[in-house]
């Protein structure tokens, strides 16, 4: 009696690479003022678009046939506009334990 057998398999073990980010306490509160970057140009309503600017979705209006939104004042989202479910999830995140270097292009 002859028995033949074969096994071929690949085990790939990977370790997370790159940066894993946790929001700062200011970002958890809705304060993204530290992210504001340089000017990107002018919007149809005459205002200046800035890098990493956060716009208010409830301020949408039409200007010269194009939809335009107003940015949040100071790039800070008011606490009253924060989703309560998201706020509870953010409380589950671990505290930041590394210095903040900002975005690579800043």
Structural class: alpha+beta
Largest sheet: 2 strands, antiparallel
Seen as an oligomer or otherwise, the chain set is: single chain
Total number of helices: 2
SSE arrangement, N to C: HEEEEH
Gist?
With 106 residues, the protein is an alpha+beta fold. It has helices at 25-28, 84-90, and strands at 39-42, 48-50, 61-63, 66-68.
Written description of the protein model:
Helices cover 10% and strands 12% of the residues. It is α+β, with helices and mostly antiparallel strands and 106 residues long. It has a domain at 25-90. The strands form 2 sheets. It has a two-stranded antiparallel sheet. Strands 3-4 form a two-stranded antiparallel ribbon. Strand 3 and strand 4 (66-68) form a beta hairpin.
Structural topology:
Blueprint: H1 25-28, E1 39-42, E2 48-50, E3 61-63, E4 66-68, H2 84-90
Antiparallel strand pairs: 1-2, 3-4
